[in-house]
Amino acid sequence: MSAVASPRGVLVVGALGRMGRAVRAALAHERSLVLAAALEAKEHPEQGARLEHGVVVTHDVAAAVAQCDVAIDFTTPAVTLATANACAGAGVAYVAGTTGLSRAEADALDALGARIPIVRAANFSLAVNTLVWLVRQAAQRLGSAFDAEIVELHHAAKRDAPSGTALRLAEAIAEGRSGASEPLVLERAGEIGARPTASIGVQALRGGDNTGEHTVMFIGQGERLELVHRSSTRDHFAAGAVRAAAWLAGRTPGVYRVEDVFGL
Ligand code: NAD
């Protein structure tokens, strides 16, 4: 009879947030993982609440990290960096879904990959990562004769703009067209003159409870190709992050791509 490995303990950072709640629900479907600790802001009104498996919500980072093998984090850049640092000190793997990190913050997080396995992604949806792949292919084939524009729509409470996913899609366009990064046009108002060639327009819309829509347009002479992803729940982001956490089990330290997790 072969021994059944016991599930790996998961720390959910931001456990009472919109994504934190979705991640906790998704954990119920992954038998190799179990909720072991839940971090929340010190001032959160539900501090001390008892969650699944008797886990009590805490703001004690050291105590939470000590309970776990892997962390899943959807919070803010400052919280993500601080918690990932604590996890690196304890050898706890890290799945970081927080968006809006500056270049310096992203580099600081990636540097922790020298000590622990990390997956950092602006979007953990399988379909969105497939969209990134399709956009790169389309950009390669259409070239810069087609102007690339991205429009994203998210709920009114979203803190960062444009979305991390829109920025990832812009990167994919540049990768497909030239490999070099291309200037982003983030707003247009007033006498702006003709559209600069080899630029990528990114426009952010905000409202209601929308969990995320991204449209990538390749606009040519007399024709337009549009690739669209529409999300109506957070469940697929959470499922992808949980899948990444399970996939990290036993990996050596390093920064892994979400595409590696999905085999794209
Ligand atoms: P949210 O505001 O609902 O949740 C964030 C939670 O973090 C809150 O509950 C907040 O109290 C908590 N928090 C604040 N300070 C904390 C601290 N010191 N320690 C622990 N927890 C703390 O936000 P959300 O909608 O869940 O989004 C969170 C992040 O995830 C955003 O950056 C968003 O863009 C990103 N996101 C990423 C993906 C993806 O697939 N990568 C998908 C959706 C959202």
Description:
The chain has 264 residues and is of the alpha/beta class. Helix content is 33%, strand content 23%. The chain is built from eight helices and twelve strands. Strands 3-2-1-4-5-6-12 form a seven-stranded parallel β-sheet, with helices on both faces. A hairpin with a 4-residue loop joins strand 10 and strand 11. The chain is elongated and about 60 Å long. It starts with 7 loop residues before the first strand and ends with a helix. The mean pLDDT is 96. Bound molecules: nicotinamide-adenine-dinucleotide.
Topology:
Layout (H helix, E strand, L loop, with lengths): L7 E6 L4 H10 L5 E7 L17 E2 L2 H6 L3 E4 L3 H14 L2 E4 L6 H9 L5 E4 L5 H17 L4 E8 L9 H14 L6 E2 L14 E7 L6 E7 L4 E7 L4 H13 L6 E3 L1 H5 L2
Parallel strand pairs: 1-2, 1-4, 2-3, 4-5, 5-6, 6-12, 7-9, 8-9
Antiparallel strand pairs: 7-10, 10-11
Helix pairs in contact: 1-7, 5-6
